[in-house]
Structure formats: C-alpha cells, structure tokens
Design a protein that fits this description.
Glutaredoxin, DUF3105, transmembrane, alpha/beta, transmembrane helix, membrane, 4 helices, 213 residues, 44% helix
Length: 213
Amino acid sequence: MASRNNDRRARIEQMRRAEQARERRGRIITIAVSGVVVAGLVGFGVFVLNKESEKKEQKVAEAKAPVTGEKTWDAKKLGRKHVTKAVSYPMKPPVGGDHNQVWMNCNGDVYKEPIADMNAVHSLEHGAVWVTYNDKAPAADVTKLSERVKKTTYSLMSPVKDQAGAIMLSAWGKQVTVDSADDPRVSQFFTKYVQGAQTPEPGAACTGGLGAQ
C-alpha cells in the first residue's frame, strides 16, 4: 500500500515538473517572439523616420535650388493695387501686377474654361501656383497636372490658349515653361513657390473668392 502511494506521488511530481517545464518553454517562446516583434517595429519605425527625413531634405534642397529655365521679375516693380479697369500685363500668363480685389479660388481648383487674369493674379499674391496650358499640351499631361493641382492647396489650373508654351507654371514674379507633366521642374516649382518666400501675402485665403468648383 505504501509502495503504491509512493508511486502515485512520484507520478504526480513528475507530471508537475513536466508542466512547469512546459510553462517555462512557453514563457521563453513568448519573450523571444515579443523581442522579434519589438525589434521589427523599431526597425520599421527607424525606416519610416529615415524616409520622412529624406523627403524633408529633398524638399529643402528643391526649395533652395534654382529652377532651370525659370524667368524672374522684380517683385518690387510689380504693382499690387486693387483696380477695376482692365490691366495690360507684359507677360502671358501674368505673374503679378495690379489686379482685381477678388481672387480666384485656388484651393486645388481646376478650371476647364479660361479665367480672368486680374483675378488669377490676386491668387498669386496669396501664394498660389497657377498651372496653365494651351491646345498643344497632350491630354495625358493635362490630366496628370489637374490631378496634382486637385491635391495641392494654394494652386489652380486653367487653359490659356495664347500663351507661348504648351505647359507653363506661374507664381508671383516667377514663371517656367516645362516639357511635360513629368518634367521634374513641376515638382520643384510647386515645392519652391506654393506659399513660398516670393508670396506678398502669405497665409491669405485661397477660398471664398471667385469661381468655386
């Protein structure tokens, strides 16, 4: 009888040790897996931060670098009065000068029909980039540019049939003609001049004006 009790206690003890061993293995596996997950998350976080840092550095570089082929006008010589009579601008599209007191909405607005220069110039004064194109611009480029404008506050787009270049970008005192929607100068111009240093009235509204879409 005593022998059977001893055997029973031995089996129970053996089972208890086996259960403890399984629990230890489970804890070790859990800790190991958690460590891998944490390491992965940390690595991913570092990767994301590095990518964001690279993007910021790229934007800073684009903002500092000159835009190849860009034309510049002396901002001090561009009038800024609000007028009601028609203004004859020396460049097409205009990049500044006296203008109508009401701006064109430039909150990513894409206009399918020509807009008034005097209202668009007021938008440039608020820090907008104005994308324009004529009949020579490929339809695919017009579509790509319109998609970019729609995603960009302080920008607008419209056709200008009698402009010299097929695709042109204008900001206050700045203008460039590009070869296509994929021309790297498009991105550079947006980065440099959307609410850029050239803006006479930074932070002024691009909504509440004329031509809500």
